[in-house]
Amino acid sequence: MKALGIAATGMHAQQTNVDVISNNIANANTTGFKSSRAAFQDLIYETRKREGALTGQEGSTKPVGVDIGLGVQTSGTVRLNTQGGMLGTENQFDVAIDGRGFFAVNLPDGSQAYTRDGAFQLSAEGQLVTLQGYEIDPGIVIPENTVRVEISEQGTVSAFVENDPVPVELGEISLATFVNEAGMRALGNNMMQATVASGDPLQGRPGDPGVGVVRQGYLENSNVNIIQQITDLISAQRAYEMNSKTIETADQMMSAANQIK
């Protein structure tokens, strides 16, 4: 009886579904987090009777076949890159991306990662860094005795030093976009990495066509919809229970067959 194995694949798939939903809920307050959903596909089919086969000498054919599916498997987890809400912080080093794009970050091993988390800080050398201490690329160095920093929507960073009324332009924050953002690999610490599936990063200035703008004094909230996640969690739980019930029913049928004398 194949029902036992088929239902087992269903339980495994729903467990994966619950794992993905749980991660979404856990990161409901993570800055710049993008929720994911599990995608599934059916497995191969066992064909017992082929559709179109001859059913008699007169040449008639069978309109439908007898195909028994062998279950389900997880085909991937799809990241939903919709815009999160804006949270005002009044911190001059907090920067949110409104639209498409990622901040580029230089990792200690020389590689680059990408993030939507713009909760920047200053290093001991005055460089603009992430909460993990990684420098953003291109680098921005804030001079000593800076009174105020201004970041335009186009990413231009200016500093007012001491009593000088004329700001000093320090550089520009650029944004990287990808053809397939869902194909990026999550590294943790709000970091993403480019892959063959995502394509190479395309550097652009905030406000360029297809590139978002930056908002100083704001952070992007997670795009997790808690109500939708709870609904999906209940649906996954019910599907898991039904697959469990299928195994119980198949076991009872096998037990009944074994008791026939």
Automatic annotation (TrEMBL):
Pfam family, one: Flg_bb_rod
Domain of life where this protein originates: Bacteria
A GO CC annotation given for this chain: bacterial-type flagellum basal body, distal rod
Keyword field: Bacterial flagellum, Cell projection, Cilium, Flagellum
Subcellular location: Bacterial flagellum basal body
Chief location category: other
Domain annotation Flagellar hook protein FlgE/F/G-like D1: ranges: 96-159
GO BP, sorted A to Z: bacterial-type flagellum-dependent swarming motility
Record flagged with keyword Metal-binding: no
Family (UniProt): Belongs to the flagella basal body rod proteins family.
Descriptive protein name: Flagellar basal-body rod protein FlgG
Origin species: Profundibacterium mesophilum KAUST100406-0324
Lineage of source species: Bacteria, Pseudomonadati, Pseudomonadota, Alphaproteobacteria, Rhodobacterales
